[in-house]
Design a protein that fits this description.
Glutaredoxin; Glutathione S-transferase Yfyf (Class Pi), Chain A, domain 2; four-stranded mixed sheet; 10 helices; about 35% helix; binds glutathione; Thioredoxin-like_sf; glutathione transferase activity
């Protein structure tokens, strides 16, 4: 089935990725890494797309892989470029991301999801393969990364990162959606239980270590961060993930603030896009479309105290500089 809630079980099921070509240094799939050739299409509302935004910032790939930011409010044709002059993406010349999907495969009739990477010369979507996109930015785009870029997927730690990612995907990243979109009590109960069991385990794991794997920021932290940063503004209320707020889980709250305050993380987060997307677009979950005023966001800037745990955030590298002027977000509180 396509992405949606299974009427039999009430369980939310994701559709498989349709566009899985890879952009690689050797161009094996016909898509060689080339600065300026591709466009990363995101919504800043979306946790899966936001992974790519964080990785792109940490690695300094902003110029090599320019970004198109879709309106957080989709219409019936999905993601659209209504934030741009004339409602058209200035580089791709299209109004809807769906046009790039159709160019790549005119028979495709599945969902139109972000993140997606589009080949600018042909206008075709190359990939919407979420887990692969960030791993390839880390391992295939190395020639264009900034001096001092961190190694977010260090070879000796890959098995451990992959294992943590698999668990976090199933029981955190995807589980919040499964709780929120469940249409039977048992499907909701199951997702809720898995989510909070996993968050408790992650709290334990992170109590005495600054990052999930090794002593530096890795892909694993990025994947957990983009769910945690949406937790209190959206998942706690809208998706009924309400055993606790993130702010009531001391270890994870400090961990999330530590990352938020690290250059490349918080400067990609647009709480206005996040809140308006979920509360307005999911009419089945929130029929009034009212966007809540809370929570207070200024607490994201409060001291987290996790420097005491040691760790070397960027390993042998260094933090990124500020975002390019066109990508600087308005004050968030
Ligand atoms: N579909 C991917 C993740 C990407 C995704 O679901 N993105 C959302 C926004 S957060 C989207 O674009 N949804 C529209 C759709 O799938 O039609 C997955 O199953 O892991």
């Amino acid at each position: 089935m396509v992405q949606g809630t299974d009427p039999e079980t009430g369980k939310f099921v994701r559709s498989p990725f349709h566009f899985t070509d890879r952009i690689t240094a050797d161009g094996a799939d016909g898509w060689p890494v080339e600065p300026g050739r591709y466009r990363l299409v995101v919504s800043r509302a979306c946790p899966w797309a936001s992974r790519a935004l964080v990785v792109r910032r940490l690695l300094g790939l902003e110029a090599a892989l320019p970004v198109a930011v879709a309106d957080p409010i989709q219409d019936e044709k999905s993601w659209r470029f209504t934030l741009d002059p004339g409602d058209v993406d200035p580089v791709l010349g299209i109004r809807y991301l769906a046009e790039a999907y159709a160019k790549a495969d005119p028979t495709y009739d599945g969902g139109i999801s972000v993140p997606a990477i589009v080949d600018v010369p042909s206008g075709k979507v190359v990939t919407n393969d979420v887990p692969r996109i960030t791993l390839d930015l880390e391992t295939e785009w190395t020639a264009h990364q900034r001096p001092g870029a961190p190694d977010l997927y260090p070879e000796p730690l890959r098995d451990e990162i992959d294992a943590v990612n698999a668990r976090v995907y199933a029981d955190v990243n995807a589980a919040v959606y499964e709780a929120g979109f469940a249409t039977t009590q048992s499907a909701y109960d199951d997702a809720y239980r898995r989510l909070f069991t996993c968050l408790d385990e992650l709290s334990e794991r992170l109590a005495d270590r600054r990052y999930l794997v090794g002593d530096t920021i890795t892909e694993a932290d990025i994947r957990l961060f983009t769910t945690l940063v949406r937790f209190d503004p959206v998942y706690h209320g809208h998706f009924k993930c309400n055993r606790h707020k993130l702010a009531e889980l001391p270890v994870l709250w400090a961990y999330a603030r530590d990352l938020f305050q690290t250059p490349g993380f918080g400067d990609t987060v647009d709480f206005d896009h996040i809140k308006r997307h979920y509360y307005v677009v999911h009419g089945n979950v929130n029929p009034t479309g009212i966007v809540p005023n809370g929570p207070v966001l200024a607490e994201w800037a409060t001291p987290h105290g996790r420097e005491e745990l040691g760790g070397r955030p960027f390993g042998d590298g260094a933090p990124p500089g500020p975002p390019p002027p066109a990508e600087v977000l308005p004050p968030q509180w």
